[in-house]
Amino acid sequence: MTGRPSARKVRRAAVALALAGALGVSVAACSSGSGSGASAPAELEVKAAPHAATLAKLPAKAEGAEIVVGSPSAAHTVTVYEDPRCPYCAKFEASGAVPLAEFAAQGKVKIRYTLASFLDRNLGGSGSKNAAGALRASVDAGRFAEYHAALFASQPEDEGSDGYTADNLLKIADKVPGLRGAAFDKAVRENTYKSWVASAEKAFEDSGVNSSPTVLIDGKRPAGDGSAILDADAFAQVLKDAGIS
């Protein structure tokens, strides 16, 4: 008997996809079928990024469907594909992304982010879209790098929970000095960047990347099985081996 996959199966597929992306394995994208819907939004444990001082030094700007962090003249480029609800993206942001931010603050690398939202389709809800829109709004406020890290640090433990509501996204913003304000708050509550979020998802789909997180160094996947992106020291060495030092 055929039919739509259960919410449990869809959720397992999403986690498998995220894990495969973390390990640099090429797999098919998550099923486009919907489950029974996301669970009720959870109250987030809001956290600030532990390396906020480093992140505060990083400029960011929107370039089409991407957000570019760091010096435009940096000799190297690291491209990152993430979905805000992806648990392995949060693991990357808490580990491999820390030395990456340090190199960016030193002007040695710029980071190009493509923010996907495919997990909303697979798990139900709108948390990924809401978060991506808030992240785009934080660029205008000059606080993207800090907010981006705080958002992943505050990610709901259950990726099926549609926890990135407007209220929760604003609570996370409270952890970033200088971010809250009339323009940012309005953009979050009114989905000002809805069209941009859709274009970012399309850019993800058109890129040929089929999992998150996917990290490319100067356009290439790191050598090895890809697990280094989930270990700060290991990924720092990978970056150095790529000439970023």
Automatic annotation (TrEMBL):
UniProt keyword annotations, A-Z: Disulfide bond, Oxidoreductase, Redox-active center, Signal
Pfam families noted in UniProt: Thioredoxin_4
Signal peptide: 1-28
InterPro entries: Thioredoxin-like_fold, Thioredoxin-like_sf
Domain Thioredoxin-like fold: 64-221
Family classification: Belongs to the thioredoxin family. DsbA subfamily.
The protein's name in its UniProt record: DsbA family protein
Organism this protein belongs to: Streptomyces melanogenes
